Amino acid sequence: MLAFLLRRLLTLLLTAWLATVAVFAVLEAVPGDPALLMLGVNAQPDTLAALRAQMGLDRPMAERYLRWTAGLLRGDLGVSLTYARPVAGLVAERLVVTLPLALLSLAMSTLAAIPLGLLAAARRGRGGDWAVMGFAQLGVAMPSFWIAILLILLFSVTLGWFPAGGFPGWEAGVGPALKALLLPAVALAVPEAAILARVTRTAVLDTLGEDHIRTARAKGVGRAAVLLRHALPNALIPVATVLGLQLSFLVAGAVVVENVFTLPGLGRLLYQAIGQRDLIVVQGVVVVLAVFVVVVNALVDIACAMVDPRPRAS
Amino acid sequence: MRRLPLSLWLGLTLVALLLAVALLSLVWTPFPADKIRVVARLRPPGAEHWLGTDHFGRDVLSMIMVGARNSLSIGAMAVGLGLVFGVPLGLAAAALGRWGDEILARLGDLVFAFPAVLSAILLTAVLGAGAVNVVLALGLFNAAVLARVTRGAAQAVWRREFVRAALALGREPLSVTLVHVLPNVAGIVTVQATVLFAVAIVNEAALSYLGLGIQPPSPSWGKMLGDAQTHLFTAPLQAVFPGLAIALSVLGLTLLGDGLRDWLDPRHRTSGIL
């Protein structure tokens, strides 16, 4: 187990480092002068010179990269041109919206998908299976931002039960804040739940074919108990793996859905930074999101390996 | 002759319909898709405009038809790029063994750290919004996925006896790859490419919704949804039709992928019902 942990940690560090190189390299590929791109052609020469100095454009590329990564390790993502504030502070402020949104949708999708997948497996080839797989097929086909618009249309415009957008802040109370996050979380959760329900169903069916299940049935264990106590725990390993992989799609979905609901999260910050040509914010947010995905995937791998020794051996 | 799975039939029908609409838009649309008629703005569906008009008075059906062409073109180019770079990379990694494998695995990890939409946003931040940058970003993601899938499938083929026999007879690894390995991985690559096509359509729509994908006046389903959102109170149906077009296209392509997989390898039957 220790060897596996060390190997996984090494892979995590390598991938995170490669991610910083990739983000840095893409922004280095800006055609022409990045400072000019950010400030526009009408910028004053001294303002341009100041920004060039702040971005280190007068220094060699390797030095710039080393300074930037050293800053990252200290939690320094640079200073935003638009907000004139450290990017790390902006990211921290926006995380209080994005993180609860992601966790809420993750909880919703998991809580819906596992019982649905289990139901489909238990009723294989019958009405319940058809209904769940039909939902899964449709859920995968509907983009989260369209679901978001349909939810606004139904629950905000027609019924008036939920706000169509915006976020009152946690200081307004947990209730109003959660109410503002509920529809976006549902929009993100539906496609995730659809994929997870399919995976749960397949994993449970695979497990049901194994010897220990037959033995349990032969010993007189009831069908429901076999499903819940024997098949489900084993099926959760592939489900957890897919959950980890789905996280990157959740991050991407959140970027778009936050904009549908004008939620002041990381996705909205990123989108606005592009409009404002604030490359320092873009660079900071993208690297934070990429490292987040890499770290969570590694944690899922480690958690799965602790439960199931087979991946460790390979 | 093995019976075609129902999902394959349904998928083929939906994709054929999508293709037919896209091709028809080349020669005919009810109205020019970019024709602005302010007097006819936000009309509900009716006899003249079957799906109504948008906030500029443009015919929604015509825009959806041309949008189908745009979505299909971007999806095809993104998948094409993925195939051109991903498949040879995957084949090479499988043929080279451990080192090729390790390098590809790390590159794959790196690309998966950036969801396709995020890489596209990063690229458009640097190079500007537009269809070309969307294709580049989605193509890069597809290349990583296809390289990984090809490598896995090719490794299994390399272990089979007929490949070992070919090597024992003195065939070069390149020739073995082209003559024996490639035809045997083509099926699984086709299935994956179909699914990636669907993913590319959704991602293009999301980026166009944000204004980073296809640029006006060229219609895009995602952009149409973005515009419709600002008129939800007055013209709610405008937020339904482009979304339906996206969902039906993705449904068709995923059903096609599922059906192809079941047809090519019945042991891999996933749904059991479709």
Which helices and strands, and how do they pair?
The complex is a heterodimer of chains A (314) and B (274).
Chain A: H1 2-28, H2 34-39, H3 45-55, H4 61-74, H5 87-122, H6 127-141, H7 144-158, H8 174-208, H9 211-218, H10 223-260, H11 266-275, H12 279-307, H13 310-313
Helix pairs in contact in A: 1-12, 5-6, 5-8, 5-10, 6-8, 7-8, 7-10, 8-10, 9-10, 10-11, 10-12, 11-12
Chain B: H1 6-27, H2 60-96, H3 98-113, H4 116-127, H5 131-158, H6 161-168, H7 173-209, H8 221-229, H9 241-264
Helix pairs in contact in B: 1-2, 1-9, 2-3, 2-5, 2-7, 3-5, 4-5, 4-7, 5-7, 6-7, 7-8, 7-9, 8-9
Number of DSSP E strands of chain B: 0
Most extensive interface: pair and counts? A-B, 59 and 47 residues
Structural class of chain A, by secondary structure, is mainly alpha
Whole-number mean pLDDT of chain A? 88
Describe the structure in brief.
The complex is a heterodimer of chains A (314) and B (274). Chain A has 314 residues and is mainly alpha-helical.
Protein described:
The complex is a heterodimer of chains A (314) and B (274). Helices cover 79% and strands 0% of the residues of chain A. Chain A has one domain: MetI-like (MetI-like fold). In chain A, helix 10 (223-260) packs antiparallel against helix 12 (279-307). The longest helix of chain A is centred in the last third of the chain and has 38 residues, at 223-260. With 314 residues, chain A is mostly helical. Chain A contains 13 helices and no strands. Chain B has 274 residues and is mostly helical. Chain B is built from 9 helices and no strands. Chain B has helices spanning 6-27, 60-96, 98-113, 116-127, 131-158, 161-168, 173-209, 221-229, 241-264. Chain B starts with 5 loop residues before the first helix and ends in a 10-residue tail after the last helix. Chains A and B meet through helix 1, helix 6, helix 7, helix 8 and helix 10 of A and helix 3, helix 4, helix 7, helix 8 and helix 9 of B.
